[in-house]
């Protein structure tokens, strides 16, 4: 079983040497207290909590799972105690306003904190993770009274939160939501309906759970324009333990993340309160959705990292055959797996996705900080700008990183050979847990449609791609004459041109054939992911080269490994982007020509 070790050295490299978080924090209205010493202390203390308390519960939590007893969900042994330690440390409110019980630090620090928890124990991290979305939604759209009643205990961590969107008849297509909200004379509403797949829908680690629920008012417009958003607590404030018509119908039996309670939730005339304007529920909920999608993108990094931490020690210890280039360990009966080229390929893929994805996430976290600055400064123009910038990243991070995280989690299991298929080593659990990441908070296909259909074609007419590829062109032109960086620079210049060409071609074809948006979207997303990660690996390579020549905070071996991994990514992984580009430009004919009735498994 992998023993999680926080990748503090890589985190420091990105924060201090690649993205200069210290200077970034100085530009933020809530960044004054985010000094280097404070950041170091936060990372160090969270690393201890994850390594010593949360991580050791990963495998046992999977084996025990959650149980529904007398209408209450019981979490696995040790979870309550671990959460109590997490809550006592003030971790839940790290990046939330001081006036509501938080520490008021930048959102990026909260994401970095969440990454460590996610890697140590994804199931555990989902409980406080779901609360963050509820907190953000109430902070942005709730009244002052709602903030005092709900945001304060959520920020303190004594209460938990969920989002309740999906219903038995609808998932992504929320226009089909049937849950009803009946107005009451006192200004409250009676909420009635059933929601499914509700993560952290109920558990025994907090005294109350606040559900953020989508529902329809009487005579509301049909479709998505008629959905409102409500706060529906398990227990009303001041009435802990008294029934509010919220109950758990059942626990889902899942492939993975078994220590995370995924519930069917029944609302039987439960008392709820409108949050935000009537019939504008989806607009308010997207605050929650974008937060959740960034968090799910983190799952791709988390499982790549944890699987790498399991596979690497095994590859160094397990003896099997001799290396093709000759004996590497002549005194041993065979050479370690680490000396075999194909095993190295899998390990390097894991390392490239974990560290490349982390760079993508940390860069995006700075955008999130800037977006929050717009809220704190009451500057809507600033908020809208950075929200739009972050919106381009979100589907790429969520779609690409979860797909590649799942892929390299499988590679980690493959390193173990047959032993990877055995539960005691913990590698198959990582694969099972990773599988959900490409499904919830919008499947990869939905992320692809959001990226190509909404963000690229509809909203910006390709401008978001043109704007981001300026970064690739800048790095390429700056470093084209540097012997060590020229291979990266030259390929980035080619990618910048190819990405824009691909976007323009799809845009022209889609104007005549709308199916092109759907048939090309997955490959466009994957291409965009490979291209974006290439830029961030080149960026890391450039910093590593500079530190090797001029001195840095880390040992020389660390920077050499960065350069080697960047070289591997460009030579062995980036070529896959070309295949996605070619596939994206193919006519829709081969996908759409077969009639629906001709799809069959009855061949008699």
Automatic annotation (TrEMBL):
One annotated GO molecular function: oxidoreductase activity, acting on the CH-CH group of donors
Domain Acetyl-CoA dehydrogenase-like C-terminal: 482-594
Segments forming domain Acyl-CoA dehydrogenase/oxidase N-terminal: 80-157
Enzyme superclass (EC): oxidoreductase
Ranges where the Acyl-CoA oxidase/dehydrogenase middle domain occurs: 163-269
Cofactors, names only: FAD
Transmembrane segments: none
EC number: 1.3.99.41
Record domain Acyl-CoA dehydrogenase/oxidase C-terminal: where: 279-450
Keyword vocabulary terms for this entry: FAD, Flavoprotein, Oxidoreductase
InterPro entries: Acyl-CoA_dh-like_C_dom (IPR025878), Acyl-CoA_Oxase/DH_mid-dom (IPR006091), Acyl-CoA_Oxase/DH_mid-dom_sf (IPR046373), AcylCo_DH-like_C (IPR036250), AcylCo_DH/oxidase_C (IPR009075), AcylCoA_DH/ox_N (IPR013786), AcylCoA_DH/ox_N_sf (IPR037069), AcylCoA_DH/oxidase_NM_dom_sf (IPR009100)
Known catalytic reactions: 3-(methylsulfanyl)propanoyl-CoA + oxidized [electron-transfer flavoprotein] + H(+) = 3-(methylsulfanyl)acryloyl-CoA + reduced [electron-transfer flavoprotein]
PANTHER family: ACYL-COA DEHYDROGENASE, BROAD-SPECIFICITY LINEAR ACYL-COA DEHYDROGENASE FADE5
Function per UniProt: Involved in the assimilation of dimethylsulphoniopropionate (DMSP), an important compound in the fixation of carbon in marine phytoplankton, by mediating the conversion of 3-(methylthio)propanoyl-CoA (MMPA-CoA) to 3-(methylthio)acryloyl-CoA (MTA-CoA).
Family as reported in the entry's similarity comment: Belongs to the acyl-CoA dehydrogenase family.
Protein name: 3-methylmercaptopropionyl-CoA dehydrogenase
Species, as recorded: Alcanivorax nanhaiticus
Lineage, broadest ranks: Bacteria, Pseudomonadati, Pseudomonadota, Gammaproteobacteria, Oceanospirillales
């Amino acid at each position: 079983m992998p023993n999680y070790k926080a990748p503090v050295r890589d985190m420091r490299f990105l924060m201090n040497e690649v993205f200069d978080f210290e200077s970034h924090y100085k530009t933020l209205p809530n960044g004054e207290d985010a000094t280097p010493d404070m950041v170091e202390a936060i990372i160090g203390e969270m690393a201890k909590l994850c390594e010593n308390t949360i991580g050791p519960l990963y495998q046992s939590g999977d084996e025990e799972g959650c149980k529904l007893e007398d209408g209450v969900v019981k979490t696995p042994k040790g979870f309550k105690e671990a959460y109590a330690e997490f809550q006592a440390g003030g971790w839940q409110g790290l990046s939330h306003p001081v006036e509501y019980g938080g520490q008021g630090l930048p959102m990026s620090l909260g994401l970095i904190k969440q990454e460590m928890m996610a890697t140590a124990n994804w199931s555990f991290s989902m409980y406080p993770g779901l609360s963050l979305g509820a907190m953000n939604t109430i902070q942005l759209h709730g009244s002052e009274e709602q903030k005092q009643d709900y945001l304060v205990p959520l920020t303190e961590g004594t209460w938990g939160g969920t989002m309740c969107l999906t219903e038995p008849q609808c998932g992504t297509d929320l226009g089909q939501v049937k849950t009803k909200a009946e107005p009451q004379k006192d200004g409250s509403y009676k909420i009635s309906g059933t929601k499914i797949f509700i993560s952290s829908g109920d558990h025994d680690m907090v005294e109350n759970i606040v559900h953020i629920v989508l529902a329809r008012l009487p005579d509301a417009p049909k479709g998505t324009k008629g959905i409102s958003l409500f706060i529906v607590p398990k227990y009303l404030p001041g009435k802990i333990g008294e029934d509010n018509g919220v109950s758990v119908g059942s626990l889902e039996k899942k492939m993975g993340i078994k220590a995370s309670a995924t519930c069917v939730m029944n609302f039987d005339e439960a008392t709820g309160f409108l949050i935000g304007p009537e019939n504008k529920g989806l607009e308010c909920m997207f605050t929650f959705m974008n937060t959740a999608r960034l968090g799910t993108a983190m799952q791709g990094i988390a499982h790549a990292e944890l699987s790498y931490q399991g596979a690497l020690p095994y590859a160094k210890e397990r003896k099997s055959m001799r290396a093709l280039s000759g004996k590497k360990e002549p005194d041993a009966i065979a050479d370690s797996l680490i000396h075999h080229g194909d095993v190295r390929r899998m390990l390097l893929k894991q390392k490239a996705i974990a560290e490349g994805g982390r760079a993508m996430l940390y860069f995006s976290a700075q955008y999130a900080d800037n977006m929050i600055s717009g809220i704190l400064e009451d500057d809507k123009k600033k908020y809208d700008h950075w929200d739009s910038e972050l919106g381009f990243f979100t589907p790429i991070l969520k779609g690409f990183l979860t797909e590649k995280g799942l892929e390299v989690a499988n590679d980690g299991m493959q390193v173990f050979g047959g032993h990877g298929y055995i539960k005691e080593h913990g590698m198959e659990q990582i694969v099972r847990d990773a599988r959900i990441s490409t499904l919830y908070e919008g499947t990869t296909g939905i992320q692809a449609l959001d990226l190509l259909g909404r963000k690229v074609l509809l909203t910006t007419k390709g401008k978001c791609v043109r704007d981001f590829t300026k970064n690739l062109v800048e790095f390429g032109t700056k470093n084209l004459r540097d012997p060590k960086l020229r291979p990266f620079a030259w390929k980035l210049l080619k990618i910048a041109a190819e990405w824009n060409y691909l976007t323009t071609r799809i845009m022209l074809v889609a104007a005549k054939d709308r199916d092109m948006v759907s048939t090309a979207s997955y490959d466009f997303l994957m291409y965009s992911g490979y291209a974006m990660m290439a830029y961030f690996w080149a960026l890391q390579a450039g910093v590593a080269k500079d530190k090797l020549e001029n001195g840095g905070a880390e040992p020389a071996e660390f920077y050499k490994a960065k350069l080697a991994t960047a070289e591997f990514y460009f030579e062995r992984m980036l070529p896959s982007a070309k295949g996605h580009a070619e596939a994206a430009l193919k006519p829709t004919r081969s996908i759409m020509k077969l009639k629906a009735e001709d799809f069959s498994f009855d061949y008699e």
